[in-house]
């Protein structure tokens, strides 16, 4: 969604200044590298200031699940967020809408979801060269074994929309079969990293041990096909 003006030419200048952002962090559990949200902020913020572009988030929709973890309850948030890139010079805008997901045993699930949403907005809107995508919380390995309940909240939305049900996350017994099918259909490194995050959150340690070998084999197959 855009208005005529300078915003697109300014975003091109931002893209030229930012360039590639290397991966400086590693998920030790599933052995892949990723870019943290701070890496993107440090690279992009100076270019936004230089060219007079602001970024404003607006949360469009939030889904919330409470999960049973090995050490207590965990919370999963999926947020749909619109990011408005605005040219200070003339007020023209370009809007990017992305999804972010966060899983945490405390009060950080929403923070993680928002970080993931803006990370994908930056990477996709500015076409930042990447070998694969992952969310900051991929550096951790939270465990959630079954679904307790789910909730959904939308702003703004009519009461009927807020009340609609959300598809439940499969319990741990079903998750291994589902993730194996997803793994078999994966074609890109980005797919693998999303699968790894789900495996960390949804599989028991025993199932993770089984899945880690299959994950490694599929990762090698995708790498060999490039």
Strand-helix topology:
Layout: H1 7-18, E1 25-27, E2 32-34, H2 37-51, E3 53-69, E4 72-87, E5 93-104, H3 109-125, E6 144-154, H4 159-162, H5 172-185, H6 189-202, H7 205-225
Antiparallel strand pairs: 1-2, 3-4, 3-6, 4-5
Helix pairs in contact: 1-2, 5-6, 5-7, 6-7
What name does the CATH topology carry? Enolase-like, domain 1
Order of helices and strands: HEEHEEEHEHHHH
Characterize the overall form: globular
Structural class: alpha+beta
Output the strand order for the largest sheet. 5-4-3-6
Protein model, in words:
The protein is of the alpha+beta class and 226 residues long. It has a single domain (7-169), classed as Enolase-like, domain 1 (2-Layer Sandwich). 43% of the residues lie in helices and 27% in strands. It contains 7 helices and 6 strands; from the N terminus they run H-E-E-H-E-E-E-H-E-H-H-H-H. Strands 5-4-3-6 form a 4-stranded antiparallel beta sheet. Mean pLDDT is 76; it is low at 132-141, 145-149 and 154-173.
In short, what is this structure?
This protein has 226 residues and is an alpha+beta fold.
Based on the model shown, name its key terms.
226 residues; alpha+beta; Enolase-like, domain 1; 7 helices
